[in-house]
Amino acid sequence: MNYVIVFIGGGLGSVARYAVGQLFKIKDAAAFPYATLTVNMASSFILGLLASLLIQRTSSSNLWLLAAIGFCGGFSTFSAFTLELFNYLKNGMYGMAMLNIGVSVGGCLLALWIGFMIGKN
Fold it and tell me: Are 35 and 98 in contact (CB under 8 A)?
């Protein structure tokens, strides 16, 4: 049953990821990857919120499987981040590569912390 729960959450997360990608549809390969940044920060926030809300509850493992493992796993896009970063480096766009790393890693860490702090209170 756990696999089914993760499967459902992952499917919902993947559809949500596709929807966000459609909102930010940009044809310019040199443009900053806002869709990837948005889903990674949102997923980090959701994961932080869930971690703080569920940290003391042992009966909520199904919610953790559905939302944290399934939804956040299907929604976040580390592989897309890596491909975009690789393309920047391959094309000699080192400034954009460093900007992408800094904003993505820093932003996702901040989003996770904010979600955790909101859920903690």
Answer: no
CA–CA separation, 49 vs 119, rounded Å? 5
- The structure tokens 């391959």 sit at 90
Q: Give the whole-angstrom CA distance, residue 45 versus residue 66.
A: 16
- 71-86: pLDDT as tens digits: 999 999 888 888 889 9
Two tokens at 11? 């499917």
User: Which residue type, as a one-letter code, is found at position 93?
Assistant: M
| Predicted TM-score of the model (pTM) | 0.80
Summarize pLDDT for 12-29 with one digit per residue, the tens: 999 999 999 999 987 777
Calculate the alpha carbon distances from 66 to 8, 19, 40, 74 in Å. 7, 19, 17, 11
